[in-house]
Amino acid sequence: MEPEKDGPERETAFSGIVRQYYGKILSYCGYFLGGNRPAAEDCAQDIFVILYNRMDTLNNYEKIGGWLYKTAGNLVKQYAAAIQKERKRLKSLTGFSDEGEFSHPLPESLRYEEDFDCLDDEETEEKIHAALEYVMGRLKKGEHTIWRIVFRERRPIADLAAELNLSPGAAKSRVARLRHKIMGLVRRFFEE
C-alpha cells in the first residue's frame, strides 16, 4: 500500500503508527539514554519527524516497527554521544564531579553569607556587596531558588530535585549551569 504524498491516507497511516509505537519508542530511548526524560522525548520526536518525512518512500506500514527501532538505535547513539560531550564540557567549565559535589566552590561571599565583617578593608567589602547585588539582580526567579537551596542553605541536590520536582540529573545540570552563570557574571562585574 503506497500512500499518496501529503494526502489524507498518509496522515491517517502516520497517526496510527504514532499511536501504536510512540510509547514504545519513547521507553526505548529513555532506557538507552539513562532515564533522561527530556532527551528521550526529543529523540522520540526526532524519530517520528524522520518517519513523517520518509513516509512516501516506505511501502509496508504493517512492518514499520523494525524500521522505527533501527532508526531509534542509530539516533539514541547520537544523542548519548552528545549528552556525554556536554557533560564533559560542563564538568570542565564548572568543576562539577560525578558525585554531585563541586571540586572548587563559589567564592565564600557569594555562597552563604552576606556579612563581610571578616574583610580587612572597607573598599573590598563594598566591592563584594556590589558584586553580590550585581549577580543577584541578574538571576531569574528559579535561579534564585536554586541558589538559596544549594549555595546558601547548603542542602543536597536531592532536596533541590524534590523541591523543584526534577530528576536528580536535571537538578545537577541546573546547579552546574547556575554556577557557570554566576561565575561569568562575577567575571563580567570585575572586568567592568
Structure description:
The structure is a single chain. By secondary structure, the protein is mainly α. The chain has 2 domains: 8-94, RNA polymerase sigma factor, region 2, helix turn helix motif (Rna Polymerase Sigma Factor, Chain: A, Orthogonal Bundle); 108-191, Arc Repressor Mutant, subunit A (Orthogonal Bundle). Helices cover 71% and strands 0% of the residues. The chain contains 8 helices and no strands. Helix 1 runs antiparallel to helix 2 and helix 5 packs across helix 8. The chain is elongated. Residues 96-119 have low confidence and may be disordered.
Task: For the structure shown, list the relevant keywords.
192 residues, mainly alpha, Rna Polymerase Sigma Factor, Chain: A, Arc Repressor Mutant, subunit A, 8 helices, elongated
H-E string: HHHHHHHH
- Which regions have little confidence, pLDDT < 50, spanning 5+ residues? 96-119
Q: How many extended strands?
A: 0
The description of the largest β-sheet is:
none
| Distinct helical segment count | 8
State the separation between the terminal residues, measured CA to CA. Answer: 67 Å
Number of structurally distinct domains: 2
Averaged pLDDT: 76
Strand content: under 5%
**Computed CA radius of gyration, to the nearest angstrom:** 24 Å
Q: What global shape is seen?
A: elongated
CATH superfamily of the largest domain: RNA polymerase sigma factor, region 2, helix turn helix motif
Query: What percent of the residues sit in helical stretches (DSSP H or I)?
Result: over 70%
